[in-house]
């Protein structure tokens, strides 16, 4: 049985997720900042991280990647469309905000492709959900009825599209085809804020009228 733990991190309170099993193994999704806090929480859980999964490479989702990768010697996965964003502050957005540190990581170890995927005992589906950014992806854990969707869809809102590579119509298409097509009861875990479900967003999200 999978469990998911949420840790809002950094100045924008980006949700970092630990997706774990009953053996204490975890996938770390979007370690955006506060590497020390992530390590402390893993120690509390006596957890063994197996990999870092990135929904996309905006700075607030990747700020602690190197800390966690080097500490635990685990691989980093990202969509190939944003392979350079990990390393370039001008692409990941960290150079846009004076006073915040520039985020520069090493290259990803593996590229994510749409379809079924297995890491250790974890089986899940990768869905390419561009629009907020070109390489945005969502991770669907069908057996547990949960989806981690980054900044594609929020509770009664959608991801912003005014950043480089953003595309509103593409985002709406991704949401409709890749997320609202899930069972209405699937729990959607966004990059910021509270969880939601496809059923709730179909009924209550003002940005999705007409879909």
UniProtKB/TrEMBL annotation:
Task: State whether keyword Cytoplasm applies.
Answer: no
Name the Pfam families for this protein: Lactamase_B
Q: What is this protein called?
A: MBL fold metallo-hydrolase
Q: Which domain of life is it from?
A: Bacteria
Q: Enumerate the SUPFAM superfamilies for this protein.
A: Metallo-hydrolase/oxidoreductase
Question: Would you indicate the residue range of the signal peptide?
Answer: none
Q: Where is the Metallo-beta-lactamase domain?
A: 13-192
Q: Which species does this protein come from?
A: Sporosarcina saromensis
Keyword annotations from UniProtKB, A to Z: Hydrolase, Metal-binding, Zinc
